Amino acid sequence: MIGIIRYGAGNIFSLTAALERLGIAYGMVNTEADLAQYDRYIIPGVGHAGAAMDKLENSGLVPAIKALQKPTLGICVGMQLLTSYSEEGDSDLLDIFPIKTLKFAGSPDHKVPHTGWNRVYPEKENPLFQDIPLGSHFYFVHSYFIEYDNSYTLAATDYSIKFSASIWRDNFYGVQFHPEKSGVYGETLLTNFSKF
Questions:
Q1: Which among 48, 88, 114, 180 is annotated as catalytic?
Q2: Which portions of the chain are predicted below pLDDT 50?
Q3: Is 117 in contact with 139 (CB distance < 8 Å)?
Q4: Is there a contact between 154 and 116 (Cβ–Cβ < 8 Å)?
Q5: Can 178 be counted among the known catalytic residues?
Q6: Catalytic residue among 110, 147, 178, 187
Q7: Is 180 a catalytic residue?
Q8: Is the dihedral of CA 114, 119, 125, 131 positive or negative?
């Protein structure tokens, strides 16, 4: 069963609606004691990374999250929180991945935020992207991106620059896009995560 980490900065409704549609069991993690009930976790997040990190620290869950040994998936800002630093709010983050979250420069051809459907290209074999064709479209809404690093990039996307659409290190995963808003392949990804 999936435990959704509640810390006041996640778009819980669209995520829980998708999990219910898929028949995936879930519950809420509000305290460290709640973690023991679940065999995997999702860290959701929308809005400002610095403000989200402040809320996560205020929840008291940071040490427990960093110590997790079970599969853990960060979505959108939840993925950015897994990195070491964000330019948004000049914020130090969880530092589970020693890479940075940076702001898109923007241009007439590449408006910021990056909003809408874009192709995602997995670069490593991993069950998270099982049965998802190379170059499948996923839905993005973000002004900040995770720098591309081959050591941690599970899947990449281009938007004026190549960036990490998904990252992976040990039991920690992240996706910059919103799988719960990405149609059949987003649902496939959530189903994959619920099974490994």
A1: 180
A2: none
A3: yes
A4: no
A5: yes
A6: 178
A7: yes
A8: positive
Q: Are 8 and 43 in contact (CB under 8 A)?
A: no
Cis peptide before 113 (omega within 30 of 0): yes
Name the pairing type of β-strands 91-92 and 83-86: antiparallel
What is the rounded CA–CA span in Å between residue 76 and residue 47? 9
Structure tokens, 26: 């879930």
Q: Is 142 a catalytic residue?
A: no
Residue pair 75/175 in contact (Cβ under 8 Å)? The answer is yes
What per-residue confidence (pLDDT) applies to 39? 97
Of 90, 19, 67, 11, the C-alpha closest to 43 is 11
Residue keyed to tokens 């006041």: 8
Write out pLDDT tens, residues 13-50. 999 999 999 999 999 999 999 999 999 999 998 889 99
**DSSP β-ladder status, 162-169 and 172-175:** antiparallel
Residue with tokens 């149609």: 183
How many CA atoms lie less than 13 Å away from 14 in the CB half-sphere? 15
What does the pLDDT read at residue 88?
A: 95
Which residue from 99, 73, 88, 54 is spatially nearest to 4, judged by alpha carbons? 73
One-letter amino acid of 54? D
Which of the following is catalytic: 76, 88, 114, 142? 76
CB 176 within 8 A of CB 186: no
